[in-house]
Amino acid sequence: MKLMILLSVTFVLLVTCGGSSDKSNTAGKSPLAENTTGIEVADDLASHPGEPLYKKHCLVCHQADGSGVPGIFPPLNDTEWVNGDNATLISIVLHGMDGKIEVNGEIYNAIMAPLPHLSDQEVADVLNYVRKRFGSTPPDIQVDDVAMVRAQG
Amino acid sequence: MAFPGHIAPNDLLFYHAEQFPEKYREGAFIAFHGSWNRAPEPQKGYNVVFVPFDGALPSGDWEVFADGFSQQGTVENPADAVYRPCGLAVGPDGSLYVNDPRQGRIWRIYYTG
Question: Which residue of B has its CA nearest to A3?
Fold first, then answer.
């Protein structure tokens, strides 16, 4: 007496070979340490001033590994947004964002909450953390850059 | 009756067919698409649960009926889930169908006796 679930051959193949490809490319970069979320973070990032800010303000939507939520919140991993123009990135944090956008070939449509209550230093810290951890362009966002974008309104 | 928060019920179906054993008849199946907003705790859901009914009211606790759609032991990040249940339907023979909108897969669940 049992309930049978029909599984196709392709389904079984996905079980045996899926799931590890996206994680293997971070393993060789630097020493890795377990943090409280169970996600591996390089040692030099665990003590970054942006780390607690990321956990508090970004992680719930963009997730512990920056992979986002399919169809809702875009990933941060090597996207043109994270790697792109500093002022645009700062503006997204300060002023939020909504509407349909395409990131790495996928469509996302949700609301990014504005975080104007973060200080200029905090915005710079968290964005430099995001750049360093998930991006490939230099984490060179200065406190003055944030102040300038904020002043422009 | 309460379910864990954020696990996202996407469909509810009362089983009026006769293929499944007695306990499932007139009970409710619920497709849980799975959570995204439990981080940094592990995500939950990504399954189909069953609630037994006697008349208009549940007659017992809910239980996981079909699981493993995510193909992850624990879903830490929603993007890791390979499949996510969404819709439910019953075929003319009483089989239960579950669909995944991420990749367009459909499962047929049937009773072999």
Answer: B111
- Does B64 touch chain A if contact means CB atoms closer than 8 Å? no
Number of A–B residue contacts, CB under 8 Å: 72
- The answer to whether A19 faces chain B, any CB pair under 8 Å, is yes
- The residues facing A69 across adjacent strands are A73
**Distance of alpha carbon B97 from its chain centroid, rounded?**
10
- Average pLDDT for chain A: 81
Per-residue pLDDT reduced to its tens digit, B78-112: 999 999 999 999 999 999 999 999 899 999 999 99
Residue B89, chain A, CB below 8 Å: the answer is no
* Contact assignment for A60 to B77 by CB distance below 8 Å: no
ipTM summary value: 0.79
Domain locations in chain A as residue ranges? 37-152
Residue spans per domain, chain B: 1-84
Determine the CATH number of domain A37-152.
Answer: 1.10.760.10
pLDDT (tens digit per residue) in A24-69: 333 333 444 444 455 566 767 889 999 999 999 999 999 999 999 9
Sign of torsion over alpha carbons A72, A75, A80, A81: positive
Q: Which residue has the tokens 């230093």?
A: A121
- B40-64 burial string, b = 16+ CB within 10 Å, else e? eeebbbbbbbbbbbeeeeeeeebee
Give the predicted TM-score (pTM) of the model. Answer: 0.77
